[in-house]
UniProtKB/TrEMBL annotation:
<dbReference type="InterPro" id="IPR036291">
    <property type="entry name" value="NAD(P)-bd_dom_sf"/>
</dbReference>
<protein>
    <submittedName>
        <fullName>D-2-hydroxyacid dehydrogenase</fullName>
        <ecNumber>1.1.1.-</ecNumber>
    </submittedName>
</protein>
<feature type="domain" description="D-isomer specific 2-hydroxyacid dehydrogenase catalytic">
    <location>
        <begin position="18"/>
        <end position="330"/>
    </location>
</feature>
<dbReference type="InterPro" id="IPR029752">
    <property type="entry name" value="D-isomer_DH_CS1"/>
</dbReference>
<keyword id="KW-0560">Oxidoreductase</keyword>
<dbReference type="Pfam" id="PF00389">
    <property type="entry name" value="2-Hacid_dh"/>
</dbReference>
<dbReference type="Pfam" id="PF02826">
    <property type="entry name" value="2-Hacid_dh_C"/>
</dbReference>
<dbReference type="InterPro" id="IPR006139">
    <property type="entry name" value="D-isomer_2_OHA_DH_cat_dom"/>
</dbReference>
<dbReference type="GO" id="GO:0008720">
    <property type="term" value="F:D-lactate dehydrogenase (NAD+) activity"/>
</dbReference>
<dbReference type="InterPro" id="IPR006140">
    <property type="entry name" value="D-isomer_DH_NAD-bd"/>
</dbReference>
<feature type="domain" description="D-isomer specific 2-hydroxyacid dehydrogenase NAD-binding">
    <location>
        <begin position="113"/>
        <end position="298"/>
    </location>
</feature>
<dbReference type="InterPro" id="IPR058205">
    <property type="entry name" value="D-LDH-like"/>
</dbReference>
<dbReference type="GO" id="GO:0051287">
    <property type="term" value="F:NAD binding"/>
</dbReference>
<keyword id="KW-0520">NAD</keyword>
<comment type="similarity">
    <text>Belongs to the D-isomer specific 2-hydroxyacid dehydrogenase family.</text>
</comment>
<dbReference type="InterPro" id="IPR029753">
    <property type="entry name" value="D-isomer_DH_CS"/>
</dbReference>
Amino acid sequence: MKIIIYNIDGKHEELAHEWSKKTGNKIKIVHDLLTPETVELAKGFDGVAVSQVVKVDNAVYPKLREFGIKQIAQMSAGVDMYDLDAASENGIIVSNVASYSPESIAEFTVMVGMAVVRHLEQIRKNVKEHDFAWENPIRGKVIGQMKVAVIGTGRIGATTGRFFHGFGSEIVGYDIYPNEKLTSFLTYADSVEEAVKDADILTLHMPATKENFHMFDAELFSKMKPGAILLNMGRGALVDTKALLDALDSGQLAGAGIDTYENEMPYVPKNLRGQEIDDPILEKLINHPKVIYTPHTAYFTDQALQAIVETALEAAVEVVETGDTNKRVN
């Protein structure tokens, strides 16, 4: 079987070649995105895998159908870059990797949360300036005595909740599909507003949908406990970033850990060292003294990368061989 893989490099590419040797399936690596131009390279292949980060042009789907290709395996959980209806109309099954090492993201979330609570960035800045004083701006709190609201209690959110609970934190959860198996360590709230009103830490682990775009806006921030902390390792579109910055500036929120920014696509994951960023909101987010910003790296571990590559490629093979996969999203 021959599979063409778009827009991967580095460790992903290395793992794809290892998978190819292990399974005997042939692969071709294309370092470009899947576009109406690059889709022509898929002719003669059995399957397609993609690490797509921008919207796929609808002209791609009929072209794949013309080539006899019946699937696209996305190498991530998010599939908002695909028009799933257009894909279905052309007989294209889109699959994703719904879960790839929940522990990787959960550990990162807790790590960043603790760094915000304990003012680690400010402490490091002070030390570099030879300021070794113990003063109020660097005085922290005990995680185990804080209430944590987990919004989205799928695998990643549930794992994050368990980790915080391990410190002794009280956990409140919200999900449109509550999981009763999790009530041993969390209590479900009936609404997001109820979940956040008394929380010291709010951590987001929801997929991005049209319905929850900018769910966390000025109005919701105003309903949060003054001095609360926001952690977003989920999806950038969940948060109105300007409203977040305003809430931080006003003191309504005490800090934030942000790994996903709503307009990150022009910048992440690129090395733009020495270049200016033409996005004043992102620039302010990066330099805000109350924010720890990271470029969508919560998932970035050896274990997660291997799971992403192998799961996506196996889903591609499954569709080619059987006509379907339980990883499909349309």
